[in-house]
Amino acid sequence: MVQQKPKPTVLQTFSEITNVSVPINEPWQIALTDQAIAAMTDFRVSALFKVSPVDTIDEALQKMKVAGLRFGFVIDAKSEKIEGSITSYDIMGEKPMRYLQSVGFAEGGITHKDILVKDIMEKVSDWVIVEMKNVEITTVQSVLDVFQKTGRTHIPVLDTKEGSEHRLCGIFSSSKVLRLTEYARSKATKA
After folding, report:
1. Which residue, of 74, 88, 96, 188, has the fewest CB within 10 Å?
2. For 148-170, what is each residue's pLDDT tens digit?
3. Cα(62)–Cα(154) distance, integer angstroms
4. Which residue from 99, 112, 95, 114 is spatially nearest to 55, judged by alpha carbons?
């Protein structure tokens, strides 16, 4: 009978390290002239946040709070296809009330707690998207310009190779881009 080594119960530590490389992470600050990809959340290396179309909006909001996020992709569990997106602003804003008014909540007895993600999400067909091939050749300033022009808070990035299905590969968040460029923008206004 082969005996297995016992698993350590204490985290082992060590010292006297002389050469440590810097990790490749997302930056804390970026310049307006940097490549746009520097401001993108890249789903090729980071997980995306998912909610179900049949989650109630209260469940989705709670999941977002726990994850520390304000945006989720709505994924069908069976097909694993992205159906749309939802933000915490969608849930806490006027969309739920508009939905209730549209379905005649007074007569049907439907309340806020009955609203599902699919009832108020933004469908994929309504997204404003950018293509990865363009992200790779443009600047962060261009991304800010798109946010300004469209009024959007999030812009999905798709890989759109000919003859194949569109694949989500990243997203731009206006709050992230503004945070990353805050120093560069303040410096530009002083110049």
Report:
1. 188
2. 999 999 999 999 877 778 899 99
3. 20
4. 114
Q: Rounded to two decimals, what is the model's pTM?
A: 0.81
Q: What is the pLDDT of residues 81-90, one digit of tens each?
A: 999 999 999 9
The model's confidence at residue 28, banded by pLDDT at 50, 70 and 90, is confident
The enclosing H or E element of 155 equals strand 154-159
Please give the domain boundaries of the chain with CATH numbers for all domains: 36-190 (3.10.580.10)
Q: Is-contact 114 56, C-beta < 8 A?
A: yes
Neighbours of 159 (CB within 10 A): 16
Give the DSSP letter string of 48-106: PPEE-TTSBHHHHHHHHHHHT-SEEEEE-TTT--EEEEEEHHHHHSSHHHHHHHHTTHH
Q: Which pLDDT value is given to residue 24?
A: 64
Q: What does the alpha-carbon distance between residue 153 and residue 172 come to, in Å, rounded to a whole number?
A: 8
